[in-house]
Amino acid sequence: MWPLDPSRKEVLGFAVSCRVLTLVLQVLTRFLCSSSPIVYWFSAHLLLDQEPLLRSLETVPGKPPAGDPPPGQKVPRNSIMGLLYNWKTCSLVTRCILGYFVTYWLLGLLLHCNWLPWT
């Protein structure tokens, strides 16, 4: 069953160990990042502490805007969309957190659609 050539045996062992390591890493990242809310709690905590746009009264979810918006400007109902619309005025911590999640979403979208492994 095993090939007689030792180099083939080593290659097969290497291939099997790489596959097992890949499966273990994919399962661990799924357990840690998808089913554990700690990553999302920490990022939400940092956003609420570091971002003054989230503390203003205009971005409270469910509250209607006080007046008509200026022409050509969107008033988002979602506070995250409000942060994305005001990207240049956000703090560095907010831009890093939003950049991480948007990049993760885009990479996952592109890799999953092309049948590449993505956790």
From TrEMBL:
UniProt enzyme class: transferase
Keywords: Endoplasmic reticulum, Glycosyltransferase, GPI-anchor biosynthesis, Membrane, Transferase, Transmembrane, Transmembrane helix
Record has RNA-binding as a keyword: no
EC number: 2.4.1.-
GO molecular function: glycosyltransferase activity
Transmembrane segments: 97-118
InterPro entries attached to this UniProt entry: PIG-V/Gpi18
Function: Mannosyltransferase involved in glycosylphosphatidylinositol-anchor biosynthesis.
Protein name: GPI mannosyltransferase 2
Native source species: Odocoileus virginianus
Record gene name: PIGV
